[in-house]
Specification:
Length: 94
């Protein structure tokens, strides 16, 4: 669970997750283009790739290869685990 919090601590990674929530199944090139045009983030391809690696290691992003393309998908399961752990228990005990 610590990896999830580490991944969410960075504003660029949160923006990447926002973009995947809006339009799932994007390539690195598409994500970088959207970050540049919609958010004014001028990060390099390598920097975005590293952010995606952190998100993937935390389980927040899953990938699928199709030929030479790698598509990135949002996985909300780790966030649901956090919600279940702290929020569900509190609501039930009231």
């Amino acid at each position: 669970m610590g990896d999830v919090f580490k991944a969410l601590a960075d504003p660029t990674r949160r923006t990447i997750l926002d973009e995947l929530a809006e339009r799932d199944g994007q390539t690195l090139f598409e994500i970088r283009a959207r970050l540049t045009t919609r958010h004014g983030l001028g990060s390099s391809r390598q920097a975005i790739s590293q952010h995606l690696d952190v998100l993937e290691a935390a389980g927040l992003v899953e990938t699928r290869r199709d030929g030479k393309y790698k598509f990135h998908y949002l996985n909300t399961a780790p966030l649901q685990q956090i919600t279940t752990r702290w929020l569900t228990d509190r609501r039930e005990s009231r």
